[in-house]
Every structure is written in C-alpha cells, then in structure tokens.
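Tokens for chain A. Residues wanted.
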C-alpha cells in the first residue's frame, strides 16, 4: 500500500508539472491593432515595440476608413487568418470596426477600446461623439469631395496638434498631421450592426483632455459595456496611444491575460 501510494503521489506530481508546463508554454494571443480616422498604423509604433518586447505577436491592420461594414470585413479577414486567439484593439473610429469585426470570429477573446467608440447596434461615431458636449472636431475639419457624392474628412494641419494630439511633442504632431489618413463622412455616420462587447470582455482607456471624443462619452460607453477595466489618463489627448504607450500597452496585456 505504501509503495502504491508513493507511485500515485508521483504520478499526480508529474501530471501537475506537465499541466503547469503546458500552461506556461501556451501561446499568447495575437494582438491586432486597428487605427482610427486621421491616423495610420505608425501611430501604434511605441505600443508595438513594447508588446513585441513582452513576447506578443502584433499586427497593425491598415484600416481603409471607407465604411464600418467594409472596414470590419477587412479586419475580420485578418482575424480569420490567425490560428490562435486574438485580442482586437481599436482607436477612435477603429472601435466600431473591431466591434463588428469580432462578430462570428470565435478566436477573438477580448476587445480593447483606446479612446475608441463602443457602439450599440444602430449607433454611429457621429451620434456617439455628440451624445455629450465637448467635441471640437467639427470646427477643425476640411472636406474633399469624392465621386459619387461622399466626402473625405481631414483635420486641418494647423489645427491638428491642438485638436488631436495636444500632449504629443510638436514635431511628432506635425508629422502625424502630414501623414493622417482621411475618413469618409459616410463611414462616421454608418450605423453599427452588432454590439459584440455584450458577449466579449471589454477594456477601455481614454484621456480627460480628448477633444475628439469627450471623456463623458467614453465614461458612458465604459459603464454601459461593463468594461472589465477602465483606465483614465489625466490630461491625455485623443492620441493617447502615442503620448501614453506604456499605459495603453499595460491594458492590452491585461486583456490578453484574461484578467
């Protein structure tokens, strides 16, 4: 009996050790970053460097900025190409895109909204941004007519720093203004078709000095979504991933860990 007990104990210890080893070596989720309007993939550069240093595989998706459904389909295609689990991260208008892109993709484990819209079905970026006062984006825009009657929207270069990235060094903000990618007016007004944050864990980070999406709007969306963790960065602008990459990275890694 004593010998059998020893064998059983050893077997349990070995199985526990094997389980721990499997858990320790299980792959981390792939982080898919989706930029929003008036930005592009390089806005994630400092976040990418930190995530990769911590062992994550990162994809900074090129968001077409043409329409929520079509943009989400492009991101969904990336998600479907990934064999393992995925954390979707969206900035600004990238929020509605990841919300829709997650639908039907069982490997998406969490949604992270970085100063990003988390729309209910039927809501758009325009309706949400005006839900509470505080946004000054409209007065900063210039438009370019497109064939078919739509319009491309840009932030005027001379207003970009104060409007979009007030806490970013002036030279960096000037480069961001020069490389900004426009969003169509119709994309900002397109109603969302699904609210996947109702079924997936959500996480949010935003700044108190955001002039694109007022902090009161972000607070409302975070409470409505019952976000697992909300980080409010005092004095941060809309470009919080550029000015505070450490805080943004930390939240993404919390989401990736399932905490």
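Reply:
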């Amino acid at each position: 009996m004593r010998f059998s007990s020893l064998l059983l104990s050893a077997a349990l210890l070995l199985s526990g050790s094997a389980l721990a080893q499997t858990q320790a070596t299980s792959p981390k989720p792939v982080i898919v970053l989706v930029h929003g309007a008036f930005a592009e993939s390089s806005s994630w550069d400092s976040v990418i460097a930190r995530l990769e240093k911590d062992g994550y595989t990162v994809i900074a998706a090129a968001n077409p900025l043409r329409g929520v459904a079509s943009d989400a389909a492009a991101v969904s295609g990336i998600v479907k190409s990934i064999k393992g689990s995925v954390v979707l991260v969206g900035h600004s208008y990238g929020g509605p895109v990841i919300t829709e892109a997650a639908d039907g993709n069982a490997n998406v484990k969490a949604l992270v909204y970085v100063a990003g819209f988390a729309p209910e079905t039927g809501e758009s970026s325009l309706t949400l941004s005006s839900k509470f006062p505080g946004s000054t984006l409209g007065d900063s825009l210039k438009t370019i007519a497109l064939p078919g009657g739509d319009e491309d929207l840009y932030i005027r270069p001379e207003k970009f720093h104060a409007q979009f990235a007030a806490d970013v060094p002036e030279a960096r903000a000037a480069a961001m203004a020069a490389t900004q990618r426009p969003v169509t007016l119709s994309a900002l007004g397109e109603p969302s078709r699904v609210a996947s944050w109702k079924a997936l864990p959500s996480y949010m980070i935003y700044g108190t000095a955001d002039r694109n999406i007022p902090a009161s709007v972000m607070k409302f969306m975070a409470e409505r979504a019952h976000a697992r963790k909300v980080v409010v960065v005092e004095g941060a602008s809309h470009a919080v991933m550029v000015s505070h990459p450490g805080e943004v990275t930390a939240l993404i890694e919390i989401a990736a860990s399932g905490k």
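The radius of gyration is 21 Å. The first helix runs from residue 2 to 25.
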